[in-house]
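quick q for whoever's on today - can somebody do inverse folding on this one?? i tried earlier but teh output was garbage lol. tokens:
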């Protein structure tokens, strides 16, 4: 069977270009290391690291400028699977997933690993149930697909409005983490740091859209992965392990367990539905590292994993990016690569948490008057606090900022300050990639499905691209304002985004492909009900009206949306013949891209009318 026709393959020298970028980035780090040994000040080194990273990212974005709507919204549908996969891997949970998950693993141990397993399961579900069929359809946004699938403008506009909420939450979370990284590097206040990251994201998206996002995403992913792996690998060698710490640090976990037992850290057991997330800010170690269910109950662990899985699989800032690949086969391969890169990043985050717990256990018992130098350095940087009671440090006397664990490891290992700046630059790179992905998805939904959503026929190219570019500026600026004024926990914003996406989007997307009886009324009811129930659950949880974590809002939202979808579809008229034919065609991997076919038919009808 013939597969979906492939577009023209991109420049075969892409590997060379990215090799040049990686070499330049590594050279920048080496030069800064030499300058540090020559006595250069930390502010000069950190500012140079920040400027070098942002200039590189924005330069690639400007070089990817386009005036073609297919390039702006889908990168020309000719992105190789490995490049699409690395972009997906870094932007699915973004810097929030890297930074906050590492801090959570450090504070509550392996109880936080559900975020990693849920996201990996989400890739698998997306690859099996959704991505190949969405790629065959070829729509630029999820609301466009739903509107054409059910032949309903109401479904298109309402789904765009509701799915914009979790996308905005994701954008605000990433801008918040990105602003923290900028603040760490330049030492300025939060408003100035937020302005820098907002301007960088706008400059990285407004010129080329998805084309800029795709090719910048590869560069940011390379920078983020290097910034994570290099300090961890050097630390592993200094500790006597192989330079593959992600797979060889097992003996250290056993040693940490013995030290925790000697220190008297208690073994805690939670109720089945309990979920206590480590809060944003300075916090002491909460429990033993590898003892399960001390911060999350067994049932809550399973439900949180399922929520993350469904949220990732239906994420409007993730799923539409598979439409940039040349065909259905490449979409599946891209998700395979995304699983590999994301798994590598998360395994490295686990290793960072293990190493930091090791250094903390070594610091226990030291004199309050003469703590380890790395701990004193973190206190001076306001990334940690020490209690002043007693004469000796205990594990509970040290509180470390949850979102600073990645940056704290180079200090704890005694590495030069440049490696801490490198870690901050990696966090900035991941935030840049994920914020750009969320911003473009939000701007595309607003421009394509709300501003121009009343007509199936796209507007003229200048108006279409102009609207999208203006909305990119607006949504990024608004996301920065939300992150600045709300001052919410970035991890909570991410988990709320996943819960709302799972409730409003996942049941409808799966049913649109695998259940032919669903109609426009059922889809509308499923989206609205799932969204409403999830939001009400989050509000009730945050107001402490219910004793359930807001991260688990989807356990009520998904069943409610699914029940509304099925019942309303059964009680109303069956779907039209056109909808049934569309389902049949979308399940066949070969043939013409359905969105292109729909647009071609509309243009033919328009010409006949004229």
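ok took a stab at it. sequence:
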């Amino acid at each position: 069977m013939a597969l979906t026709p492939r577009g023209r393959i991109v420049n075969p020298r892409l590997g060379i270009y990215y090799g040049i970028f990686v070499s330049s980035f590594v050279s920048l780090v080496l030069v800064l290391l030499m300058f540090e040994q020559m006595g250069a000040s930390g502010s000069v080194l950190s500012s140079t690291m920040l400027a070098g990273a942002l200039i590189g990212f924005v330069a690639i974005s400007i070089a990817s400028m386009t005036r073609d709507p297919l390039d702006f919204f889908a990168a020309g549908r000719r992105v190789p699977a490995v490049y699409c996969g690395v972009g997906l891997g870094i932007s699915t949970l973004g810097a929030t997933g890297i930074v906050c998950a590492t801090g959570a693993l450090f504070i509550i141990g392996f109880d936080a690993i559900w975020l990693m397993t849920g996201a990996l399961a989400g890739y698998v579900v997306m690859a099996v149930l959704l991505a190949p069929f969405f790629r065959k359809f070829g729509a630029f946004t999820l609301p466009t697909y739903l509107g054409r699938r059910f032949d309903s403008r109401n479904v298109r506009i309402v789904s765009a409005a509701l799915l914009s909420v979790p996308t905005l939450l994701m954008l605000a979370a990433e801008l918040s983490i990105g602003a923290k990284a900028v603040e760490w590097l330049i030492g300025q206040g939060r408003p100035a740091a937020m302005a820098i990251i907002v301007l960088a994201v706008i400059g990285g998206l407004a010129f080329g859209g998805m084309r800029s996002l795709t090719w910048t995403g590869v560069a940011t992913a390379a920078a983020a992965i290097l910034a994570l792996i290099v300090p961890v690998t050097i630390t592993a060698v200094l500790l006597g392990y192989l330079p593959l710490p992600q797979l060889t640090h097992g003996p250290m976990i056993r040693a940490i367990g013995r030290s925790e037992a000697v220190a008297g850290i208690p073994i805690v057991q939670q109720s089945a539905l309990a979920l206590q997330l480590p809060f944003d800010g300075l916090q002491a170690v909460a429990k033993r590292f590898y003892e399960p269910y001390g911060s999350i109950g067994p049932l809550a662990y399973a439900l949180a994993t399922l929520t993350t899985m469904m949220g990732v699989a239906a994420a409007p800032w993730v799923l539409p990016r598979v439409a940039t690949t040349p065909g259905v086969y490449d979409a599946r391969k891209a998700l395979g690569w995304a699983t590999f890169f994301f798994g590598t990043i998360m395994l490295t985050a686990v290793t960072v948490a293990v190493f930091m717990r090791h250094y903390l256990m070594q610091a226990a018992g030291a004199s309050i008057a003469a703590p380890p130098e790395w701990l004193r350095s973190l206190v001076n940087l306001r990334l940690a606090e020490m209690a002043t009671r007693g004469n000796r440090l205990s594990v509970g006397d040290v509180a470390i900022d949850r979102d600073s664990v990645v940056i704290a490891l180079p200090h704890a290992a005694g590495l030069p300050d440049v490696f801490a700046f490198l870690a901050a630059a990696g966090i900035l790179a991941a935030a840049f990639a994920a914020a750009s992905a969320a911003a473009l998805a939000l701007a595309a939904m607003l421009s394509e499905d709300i501003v121009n959503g009343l007509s199936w026929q796209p507007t003229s190219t200048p108006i279409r691209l102009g609207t999208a570019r203006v909305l990119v500026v607006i949504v990024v600026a608004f996301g920065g304002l939300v992150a600045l004024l709300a001052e919410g926990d970035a991890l909570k914003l991410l988990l709320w985004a996943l819960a709302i996406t799972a409730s409003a989007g996942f049941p409808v997307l799966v049913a649109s492909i695998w259940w032919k009886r669903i109609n426009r009324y059922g889809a509308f009811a499923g989206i609205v009900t799932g969204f409403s129930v999830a939001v009400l659950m989050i509000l009730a949880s945050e107001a402490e009206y219910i004793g359930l974590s807001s991260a688990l809002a989807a356990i009520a939202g998904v069943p409610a949306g699914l029940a509304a979808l099925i019942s309303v579809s059964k009680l109303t008229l069956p779907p039209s013949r056109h909808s049934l034919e569309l389902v049949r065609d979308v399940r066949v991997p070969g043939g013409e891209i359905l969105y292109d076919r729909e647009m071609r038919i509309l243009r033919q009808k328009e010409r006949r009318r004229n």
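fwiw The mean pLDDT is 89. also The chain has 24 helices and three strands. so keep that in mind when u check it
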